[in-house]
Amino acid sequence: MPKIEVKNPIVDITGDEMANVVWEKIKNELILPFLDIKLVTFDLGIINRDLTSDKITYEAAEAINKYKTGVKCATITPDDKRVKEYKLKKKYPSPNGTIRNIINGTIFREPIILNNIPKFVNHWNEPVVIARHAFGDIYKSKEISVKKKGRLFLRFESFDKKQVIDEHIYDFPSSGVALSYFNIDQSIREFALSCFNFALNRKIPLYLSTKNTILQKYDEAFKKIFDELYEKKYKKIFKENNISYQHRLIDDMVACLMKWSGGFLWACKNYDGDVMSDLVAQGYGSLGLMTSVLLSPNGEILETEAAHGTVTSHYLQHKKGLDTSTNPIASIFAWSRGLLHRSNLDKNKSLKNFAQNLERVCIETIEGGHMTKDLALMVGPDQKWINTNQLFTIISKKLTKLKNT
User: Fold this and answer.
1) Which one-letter DSSP state was computed for residue 44?
2) At 278, is the pLDDT very low, low, confident or very high (cuts 50, 70, 90)?
3) How far apart are CA 140 and CA 25, in angstroms?
4) Side-chain half-sphere of 3: how many Cα atoms within 13 Å?
5) Which of 110, 148, 260, 345 could form a disulfide with 129 if both were Cys (CB 3.0 to 4.6 A apart)?
6) How far apart, in whole angstroms, are the C-alpha atoms of residue 309 and residue 16?
7) How far is the first Cα of the chain from the last one, in angstroms, to the nearest whole number?
């Protein structure tokens, strides 16, 4: 049988350590044998990022903007220890953050639900998708240490000098700390657009959580912009598709999360999304079963990756020539979700069927009892496990069988 032709390229971003070993296996055993596809590859491994002074990261992001679809392997964001380990010129920022800012997208994290993998929250029968607004907030904050008694102010001065705001914050009686962070309406609006479009595409309800009763300007801006967009642009079409939008206080939303059975999109501010996405992943069983999709506000540009890291401990075993039982499922789904986006852009039905079959084969394989050690340990002591190479062989054979039928 001939390979499926994919007319337009996708951007392939390679990464670090064991995640990259698995990434190459996915390409060589599950993608390229079945697809006639051009991959525009960028090496974002920490060594190459250091050699290029991180320019390669910016080039990769621009390529995703150009080709509209990218798939990314997990990469190292170096701390001081990693700087010494790899003898880096400096401590480079997160590649994910750089790509996010250039694409100007929203991160959507969604669990992969497997019937035989126990969930810590048993009644979560449908996915809870977390949308994280990845701009500003505490990740771009400025903080100070106060050593003496004194007055703290928040000051804004417009460039034309026509608006000056001096807000008295607090009189320090002794030493302490202070923090300031920000956001902009445009970024919040683009976050809202991404969320409304994602919910509409998936036909699931959307909830925005804030603490606007306390932060009556900062968090209220999120609520106001979401509400305005919904009323002007999405209310009618949401009702036609029998889905809804609602704002809730975050403490109420957390309570609802625990009571409900899933099946909704939860729009979170930056820090909230960072924390809650890990909580949700663990609630469904494992961070190794969590997809991560970066989507532009208009829904045209997409970059996917696994939510987990580079699996350093397994890489050390791999370098010694030992077989590992590294879970590749989230990385495989990074490819499948990227290929699905490419198929929708190109109206390529054959590619869409392949991407859907790839996900289905992975789920059937694990639900059939063939899984890596991390998942087997969750199932129980009687569950057998296989190494990564064995798992790839099973998935590849099933894909080949589907191709030939």
Assistant:
1) -
2) confident
3) 37
4) 12
5) 110
6) 9
7) 9
pLDDT in tens, 167-184: 999 999 999 999 999 999
DSSP state letters, 306-327 = ESS---HHHHHHHHTT------
Neighbouring residues of 223: CB distance < 8 A, sequence distance ≥ 6: 208, 210, 212, 247
List the helix and strand counts (H, then E) for the chain.
15, 16
Q: Alpha-carbon dihedral of residues 15, 32, 66, 18, nearest 10 degrees? A: -10
In the chain, % of residues over pLDDT 90: 89
Angle of helix 17-25 versus helix 329-346 axis, rounded to 10: 50
| CB 301 within 8 Å of CB 68 | yes
Length of the chain as a residue count: 405
Query: Does residue 329 or residue 104 have the better pLDDT?
Result: 329
Query: pTM score, two decimals?
Result: 0.90
Q: Kindly give, in sequence order, each residue whose CB lies less than 8 Å from that of residue 16, ignoring residues fewer than 6 positions away.
A: 45, 46, 73, 74, 75, 76, 310
- What token pair was written down for 322? 């030992």
Buried b (16+ CB within 10 A) or exposed e, 168-202: eeeebeeeeeeeeeebeeebbbbbbbbbbbbbbeb
1 — pLDDT class (breaks 50, 70, 90)? low
